[in-house]
């Protein structure tokens, strides 16, 4: 932690406070000792100026002593030592300097010698007040630091949570695609090359994206189509895709890869669990500044399917909740053999 | 000549197996199937010596299909999923190919299979221990696949009222009728979801949802009535389990 009165504008307040004290001090001298204005000002300037400088150093007594009950004795000893030393030094310096500056009369010598007692008392008071002020500043700073740390920790937690939710690209998709590529190298090398490029593009987009980043629907749709094209190579004509995207919606934003788990679900329940051809429909439109997306897939309602864990849908809900702070943005609907999931994506207000 | 069948729902995955098999003049692919139903039919029709089998397929898995075959051929699994096999078949599977696999790896697997087929005796045992192994490792049952004649039924757990031990078989009483399946009660007891099913007797496991009432009919002897009308005896330990679950 830096010195509170040296950094920023602290020195101005510190100086102002001391000026105020010095004026009071000078007035007191004139009142009690009948000093001339000049003499009073010189005395006040020397004495308070000395403590002004010493006072800056008191910070380090506070800074390097922790306020800890187990070290209370240490604390008392170090404060006593610091107080005694600094007051002695302050008074000694003041007296020595004043002896040389003030007129060398017997009267002023007596005054200076008798002032040692009250100067020491005043010095102790300065010390005590300054230490109190420093402690308050330190306490306040600690509190603020802790608040900042807390906030930082929370952000980090949120980010790692998002990272986890996001990074669930199905490894089986990758391995099965690689197996398809291996097969194509024998029967259709050109297609194999194409598929390597598609898979690479898909992975580059999916693995390389930063957290929180909002992408345009255009980018996200392009990636989605890459994924579907790869699946089409694997499953041939069994997979049909229909899209209906409003041109206006293409520039709207949505969290990166938010559609990926949903399309994977659609393919899984459609293609992986069905013997029939399956059509997946994706639509996007804009309504009252909200991007409305829907994805529909056919499925076999009679299938006694292995229970899905519902992780994909849950993650999408959770991510949207974390990003937009709105609880309900995901809706699902089952209608005979059609399953539809709808997303309402709010748009940043500046647009 | 060794007759082989390939069961995989992806055409390209079947293609690469066929391509690699070109190196084995003694192996002939007599059928390729895109799902377990077709696979079952082809196996019954052709009685192959060697089966290349994917695990995750539409409708029924490779494992479920294998359970329905009485005299299974030598099996080489090929799948992208490592969680099933790595543990279960390390020792017992003829081989287990993790997609994508190297041609050398494939050749090794087929060579192993050929050796096994030529010393036919051991093959039968192999498969038996293989399916048993699968039972032991099963991470919970969520449906059962049974066969009557040529028809395959996939039974969801909510369709099943109770199980009854019958020698080596278990009779499954379901909405779709009564089916026999070669399995042990212990396996069912261990792997059915414990909140839904309860073993009330040495020979009976019931679905909690299907329970109608529990009656005392002799001293210390209870009779359980199901909504299907069936009445089952309840053993003493079965009774205490029922008490716990039904909280009466």
From TrEMBL, chain A:
The chain crosses the membrane at residues 12-33, 45-62, 74-96, 116-137. Gene3D superfamilies: Histidine kinase-like ATPase, C-terminal domain. InterPro entries: Bact_2-comp_sensor_kinase, HATPase_C_sf, Sig_transdc_His_kin_internal. Pfam families: His_kinase. Residues 160-239 form the Signal transduction histidine kinase internal region domain. One of its GO terms (molecular function) is phosphorelay sensor kinase activity. GO terms for cellular component: membrane. Keywords: Membrane, Transmembrane, Transmembrane helix. The keyword Cytoplasm does not apply. This is Signal transduction histidine kinase internal region domain-containing protein. It comes from Roseivirga ehrenbergii (strain DSM 102268 / JCM 13514 / KCTC 12282 / NCIMB 14502 / KMM 6017).
UniProtKB/TrEMBL annotation, chain B:
Pfam families: LytTR (PF04397), Response_reg (PF00072). PROSITE patterns: HTH_LYTTR, RESPONSE_REGULATORY. Residues 144-248 form the HTH LytTR-type domain. GO terms for molecular function: DNA binding; phosphorelay response regulator activity. SMART domains: LytTR, REC. Residues 3-114 form the Response regulatory domain. Residues 120-147 form a coiled coil. Keywords: Coiled coil, Phosphoprotein. The modification 4-aspartylphosphate is found at residue 54. PANTHER family: STAGE 0 SPORULATION PROTEIN A HOMOLOG, TRANSCRIPTIONAL REGULATOR-RELATED. This is LytR family transcriptional regulator. It comes from Roseivirga ehrenbergii (strain DSM 102268 / JCM 13514 / KCTC 12282 / NCIMB 14502 / KMM 6017).
